[in-house]
Amino acid sequence: MSARILVTGIGVAAPSGLGVEDFWSVTRIGKNAIGPVTRFDASAYPSRLAGEIHGFEPKEHLPGRLVPQTDRVTQLALVAADCAFADAGIEPGTIDPYAMGVVTAAGAGGFEFAENELRKLWSEGAKHVSAYQSFAWFYAVNSGQISIRNGLRGPAGVVISDQAGGLDALAQARRQLRKGSKLIATGGFDAPICSLGWASHLHGGLMSTSDEPERAYLPFDDAAAGYVPGEGGAMLILEDEDSARDRGARTVYGEFAGYGATLDPKPGSGREPGLRRAIDVALTDAACHPAEVDVVFADGAATPRLDREEAEAITAVFGPRAVPVTVPKTMTGRINSGGAPIDVVSAVLSMREGLIPPTTNVELSDAYDLDLVAVRPRTASVRTALVLARGRGGFNSAVVVRAVD
Amino acid sequence: MTRRVVITGIGVLAPGGIGTTAFWNLLSSGRTATRGITLFDPAPFRSRVAAEVDFHPERHGLTSLEVRRMDRAAQFGVVATREALADSGLDLAAFDPYRIGIAMGTGVGAISGLDTAYRVASDEGRIAQVDHMYAPGHLYDHFVPSSFATEVAWAVGAEGPSTVVSTGCTSGIDSVAHAVDLIREGSADIMITGATDAPISPLTLACFDAIKATTALNEEPETASRPFDATRKGFVLGEGAAAFVLEELGAARRRGAHVYAEIAGYASRSSAFHMTGLRPDGREMAEAITVALDEARLDPGDLDYVNAHGSGTRQNDLHETAAYKLALGPHAHRTPVSSVKSMIGHSLGSVGSMEIAASVLAMEHHVVPPTANLRTPDPECDLDYVPLVARDHRTDAVLTVSSGFGGFQSAMVLARPDRRTA
Question: Pfam families from the xrefs (chain B) (predicted)?
Answer without folding.
Answer: ketoacyl-synt (PF00109), Ketoacyl-synt_C (PF02801)
